[in-house]
Design a protein that fits this description.
Layout: E1 9-10, H1 12-20, H2 22-31, H3 42-51, H4 56-76, H5 83-103, H6 117-120, H7 127-146, H8 148-154, E2 161-163, E3 166-172, E4 175-181, E5 183-187, E6 190-197, H9 205-220, E7 227-233, E8 238-242, H10 246-265, H11 295-298
């Protein structure tokens, strides 16, 4: 079996975790490492199970992204999937994941089997909450079909497509930076980058697109003036065009540099990417802990009271 090494890298999701709670960050990227091994200690295996947990909202987002990917794959092959078919398939995909979570199959394979936060912590969502999740999925799928972005993509040749839901990386500040662009295409001299959003607008979305642009600059070497960046808020049917300029690029580089430096300073050994839990204190505001996957570890006797 391959002996995987926990190598230091950076991503926007990693950055968000560090800023939310350093203890959560440690559990996710260090404490859980090796939890897939049969010989793993009980605490390591538990942390690995918990880090692969998702919430109902995350499941809805995953279903929406997967269905959009399927729509685009069909389009690439010259086929069209009717909207109603996609809506029905998305609900079935959601129900399958729900049943999978209830079955407990994730205990054997946490990485590939769904473990819902709401099931694990016995939150028992109401019918109203579940109907809300269903509506988010349906409205987001509908929003995609009706979007100008999809209409534009339909006019393109698949030969112009650059990437779709592919993990890739580039080097920045001596660090491997991982990105996953929802969709990018070339059209003439321009490159269009789309990020499908299934939640609310947050102030970091613009910076995240700028990070994607930095990747694209290193990958495809297009001038800044030829980029077109879009956050597409599907449920609200709101396309937000982000104008890329030197100031936005500089801001993204500053955010990444400071974040990378902060992460490295917390390590015991930068070369070996070795960390100790004592360097990663819990967040002081326990309100954040209520929705944390690791709350039973930090509050073994009182997590129900959060």
């Amino acid at each position: 079996m391959t002996d995987f090494k926990n190598e230091f890298s950076w991503s926007f999701s990693r950055h968000r975790k560090l800023n939310t709670c350093r203890r959560q960050y440690y559990f996710h990227y260090y404490g859980s490492w090796g939890g897939w091994e049969e010989s793993a200690e009980n605490i390591t295996r538990k942390l690995y199970q918990l880090k692969n947990m998702i919430t109902l909202s995350m499941l809805a987002g995953d279903v929406i992204h997967r269905m959009i990917s399927i729509i685009l794959e069909a389009l690439k092959s010259g086929h069209e999937i009717p909207e109603k078919t996609t809506e029905a398939d998305s609900i079935q995909l959601f129900k399958k994941a729900w049943r999978e979570s209830k079955s407990g199959k994730w205990k054997i394979n946490p990485k590939s089997k769904t473990n819902l936060f709401e099931h694990y912590y016995d939150e028992r969502p109401t019918d109203e909450q579940l109907f809300g999740i269903r509506d988010t999925i349906i409205e987001s799928i509908r929003g995609f079909y009706l979007s100008d972005s999809f209409a534009f993509i339909q006019t393109l040749s698949p030969r112009e497509w650059l990437t779709k839901e592919d993990f890739d990386a580039f080097d920045f500040h001596g660090t491997r930076v991982w990105v996953k662009l929802d969709f990018a295409t070339r059209h003439g001299e321009r490159i269009y980058i789309y990020d499908w959003k299934t939640g609310k607008e947050v102030f970091e979305d613009e910076t995240q697109l700028a990070v994607y642009a930095l990747y694209a600059l290193s990958k495809w070497g297009v001038e800044i003036k030829n980029f077109r960046l879009f956050d597409i808020y599907l449920k609200k049917r709101l396309p937000v065009k982000v104008k890329l300029n030197e100031a936005l690029i500089a801001n993204a580089e500053d955010v990444m540099t400071q974040s990378i430096d902060e992460m490295r300073e917390l390590l015991d050994d930068e070369c070996e990417n070795r960390a100790s839990i004592d360097n990663f204190p819990m967040v002081e505001n326990s309100a954040f802990c209520k929705r944390c996957f690791f709350k039973e570890i930090c509050y073994p006797d009182s997590w129900k009271d959060l």
